[in-house]
Amino acid sequence: MNIQIAIVEDQDKIRKNLITRLDFFDDINIIFVAENADIALSKLRSLSEKNLPQVILMDIEMPGKTGIEATLEIKSEFPEIDILIQTVFENEEKIFQSIQAGASGYLLKDDPIQKYVDAIQELATGGAALSSSIALKLMSFVKSEQQQKETKAKAAQVEFSLSDREIDILKGIVDDLTEQQLGEQLFISPHTVRTHIKNIYKKLHVHSRASAVRFAITKGLA
Length: 222
Description:
The protein has helices at residues 12-22, 37-46, 67-77, 92-101, 113-124, 132-159, 164-174, 179-186, 190-204, 209-218; strands at residues 3-8, 28-34, 55-59, 82-87, 105-108. The chain is of the alpha/beta class. The two termini are 48 Å apart.
């Protein structure tokens, strides 16, 4: 199987070294090499659909657009292309941001070339290229972020003396539910919902739904 790839890397030495090492593998065909995200996007847009790379090796830190920003833009225009983010060190937050942007995997620049090839082949055959260690780091980061959010939300609930029912209604307000919908969801009357909303506004010192929504999002309550 012939796998078409592209390399986006701003450091000349690393770029050339990667090309040299990948050239040993007959099933990998480097379509183009780019020094930054803008050049990569320009080259992608100039190619016909059949000549697009299946996988892009994307440096995470580059002048101009970062690899994460480039990934987001490329995936919006070319969703069928898989992107492998590469960097010099593992960083849980950047891993999370990369996956959120649409990256399919994450490699370290000092990984053996066989690991690169295995990841490329895995993606080309419809698999995922997240190693078990990176997947665990990602899960750990997400869990930590969730715990921090829950702690922040609980502190805000206590600080503003919001009841659990009021929190439920506040979440419904964020979801743009009407008083009727909130009543049906919580098995209370629209009149009771309105009373709760008035109390919420009073406790939060706000005077509109928009202000309540902003407060809820800022404090992690919804």
